[in-house]
Design goal:
124 residues, mainly alpha, 434 Repressor (Amino-terminal Domain), 7 helices, elongated
């Protein structure tokens, strides 16, 4: 295993290329990756051969289990930007605003926010 720091993204690399680099960097294979992130080996194999791309939850799991490969790089490889973390102060601010809305306004805002977030769940 290499002891360098985070591996930076290369312009235009595919997810299959990133996954190959991850396997090389960590000396691992599809089966071990699948086991570590709670996926089926055939799913990881499909990513490795460019037949499909991972969903955001799988990307976050990969970044967590293989930290030299950041969410930013993994999301970029499927043509998306990584969702931003929500720090406690922003979470509190969102809830404070939400508490000032009527029940109908809260429901409308949840529907709108869910629709926007769903665009991050679809493959590029």
């Amino acid at each position: 295993m290499n002891t360098r720091g985070p591996v930076t993204p290369a312009e235009g690399e595919t997810f299959a290329q990133v996954l190959a680099a991850l396997k090389d960097e960590y000396g691992t294979n599809d089966s071990r990756i699948a086991e570590r992130i709670g996926a089926h080996v055939s799913t990881v194999n499909n990513w490795a051969h460019g037949k499909s791309q991972p969903r955001p939850a799988a990307i976050r799991a990969l970044a967590r289990e293989f930290p030299k490969f950041t969410e930013e790089r993994l999301f970029a490889a499927i043509g998306k930007r990584a969702p931003a973390p929500l720090p406690p102060d922003k979470r509190a601010a969102v809830l404070e605003v939400f508490d000032r809305l009527t029940e109908e306004q809260q429901e409308m805002l949840l529907i709108q926010a869910s629709a926007v977030a769903d665009t991050n769940e679809r493959p590029a």
